């Protein structure tokens, strides 16, 4: 089995349900649920804030830390006014590549799970072949290291009894040698660590980070200790990833390199000033508490180079005439640019035209805004399907999933959009799982209790 060729399908949706900001890559809990034939719990799919993780096709800034784009779902409104969706897009510069040594730490499961052991060995060989044995790449194993010709060097002496806490302690002995190193822990369980030992591990990750090192986690196995492992990646200022059937090695390594080279962009302020008579009817993906105000400000607390954010608001626009457009809103973003040590600010205005031609009004749509709305609707469909299953209506749940899957496929085809097509394929797989487990079989499905780690697709970036 060659992991680099596993391109089955990549689910493009998972959600944040806590305020903690630990980045998670495209391999999320929802797809893992589907693979295991589990019902995706609705409590893992909460009302979203700013859209993250998708490539929103926003224009990258040139000679500036951020760029701002404003769009509406339809360019024309009837003369009597009406409703429209405003999309605010924020994009950052791509991060610079930095020279950071990668160290892979493989933790074998204590319960001797042969399937996971085999997976670790396959992964280690594929990673070694992909990254090569060039300088700066190293491997360590707990419990019987893999010894094959051409494998990268080790950093510490191996012992069969070593667990995660013991392994990290050994790196701290020579902390000066790891100041520019990126650790990636591949783990199925943490070795039954006590609460005190878990806290020690988190504190050691914080210490490594204070010395300039970073630490990411790739969780393997059927039910890894997600809550603890998510915290570990957060303390190490790294990514938390989940191994699924669609795992694609090259994309994962690329994302790890991009993330550790990206600077944090802090204290980004977005100011929205609506025109007289324009009101917010609904915050589709944005700050909820401010939706009744004509002027409001929100911020991004966790934003890094290379990332994008999208906020969406449903507005009510007053009547007008077709002789001149209406300036619906003015949006301004401001941030302190750490690279240039200067305060940066940019703004943009959004206009809409009026028309008496109904064909012009109802046949012209902005595909980028339609795309964002479709992404959000996917979340709503998953939540609704779980509600229907619990209400004893599995076939209606399948109908809702199938209907939205068809919509995603049509939109993906028209836009030639790979990410939406991946979402559609994931929903097709989920539909098949629902068919397999119709009726009372769902009552026997064990739902994951620990789902608050995942913020793969969406990010609550508000104060």
The geometry reads as globular
Q: Oligomeric state of the chains?
A: single chain
Pattern of helices and strands: HEEEEEHEHEHEHEHEEEEEEHHHHE
Please write the CATH class name of the largest domain. Alpha Beta
What is the count of distinct domains?
A: 3
The number of E-state strands comes to: 16
3D architecture notes:
Helices cover 31% and strands 24% of the residues. It has 10 helices and 16 strands. Residues 1-27 and 439-463 have low confidence and may be disordered. The protein has 3 domains: 5-22 and 38-49 and 368-459, no CATH class; 66-95 and 264-361, Immunoglobulin-like, CATH 2.60.40; 97-260, 3-Layer(aba) Sandwich (Rossmann fold), CATH 3.40.50.410. It is globular. Helix 2 (114-131) links the parallel strand 5 (101-107) and strand 6. The two termini are 46 Å apart. The longest helix has 24 residues, at 367-390. It has helices spanning 29-35, 114-131, 164-173, 195-210, 226-235, 249-260, 358-363, 367-390, 394-415, 418-436; strands spanning 50-51, 66-72, 76-78, 82-92, 101-107, 137-142, 181-187, 214-219, 240-242, 268-274, 279-285, 295-300, 308-317, 326-337, 342-355, 458-459.
């Amino acid at each position: 089995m060659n992991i680099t060729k596993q391109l089955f399908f990549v689910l493009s949706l998972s959600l944040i349900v806590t305020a903690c900001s630990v980045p998670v890559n495209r391999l999320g809990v929802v797809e893992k649920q589907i693979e295991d034939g589990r019902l995706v719990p609705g409590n893992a799919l909460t009302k979203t804030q700013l859209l993250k993780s998708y490539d929103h096709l926003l224009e990258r800034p040139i000679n500036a830390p951020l760029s701002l784009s404003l769009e509406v779902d339809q360019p024309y409104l009837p003369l009597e006014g009406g409703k429209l969706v405003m999309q605010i897009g924020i994009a950052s510069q791509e991060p610079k590549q930095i020279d950071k040594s990668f160290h892979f730490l493989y933790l074998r499961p204590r319960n001797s799970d042969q399937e996971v052991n085999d997976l670790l060995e396959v992964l280690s060989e594929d990673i070694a072949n992909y990254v090569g044995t060039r300088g700066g790449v190293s491997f360590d194993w707990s419990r019987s290291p893999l010894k094959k010709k051409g494998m990268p060097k080790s950093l510490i002496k191996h012992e069969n009894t070593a667990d995660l806490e013991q392994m990290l302690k050994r790196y701290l002995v020579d902390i000066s040698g790891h100041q520019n190193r990126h650790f990636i822990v591949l783990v199925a369980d943490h070795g039954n660590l006590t609460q005190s030992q878990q806290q020690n591990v988190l504190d050691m990750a914080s210490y490594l980070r204070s010395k300039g090192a970073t630490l990411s986690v790739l969780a393997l196995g059927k039910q890894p200790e997600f809550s603890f492992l998510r915290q570990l990646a957060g303390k190490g200022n790294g990514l938390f990833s989940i191994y699924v059937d669609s795992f694609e090695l090259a994309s994962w390594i690329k994302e790890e390199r991009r993330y550790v080279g990206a600077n944090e962009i802090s204290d980004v302020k977005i100011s929205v000033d609506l025109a007289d008579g324009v009101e917010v009817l609904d915050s589709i993906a944005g700050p909820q508490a401010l939706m009744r105000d004509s002027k409001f400000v929100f911020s991004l607390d966790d934003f890094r180079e290379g990332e994008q954010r999208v906020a969406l608001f449903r507005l009510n626009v007053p009547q007008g005439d077709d002789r001149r457009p209406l300036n619906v809103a003015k949006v301004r973003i401001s941030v302190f640019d750490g690279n240039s040590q200067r305060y940066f600010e940019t703004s943009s205005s959004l206009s809409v035209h009026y028309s008496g031609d109904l064909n012009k009004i109802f046949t012209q749509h902005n595909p980028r805004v339609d795309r964002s709305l479709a992404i959000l609707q996917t979340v709503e469909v998953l939540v609704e399907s779980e509600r229907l299953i619990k209400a004893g209506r599995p076939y209606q749940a399948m109908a809702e999933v199938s209907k939205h899957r068809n919509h995603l496929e049509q939109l993906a085809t028209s836009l030639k959009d790979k990410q939406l097509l991946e979402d559609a394929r994931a929903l097709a797989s989920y539909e098949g799982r629902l068919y397999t487990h119709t009726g009372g079989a769902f009552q026997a499905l064990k739902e994951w209790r620990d789902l608050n780690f995942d913020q793969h697709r969406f990010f609550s970036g508000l104060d």
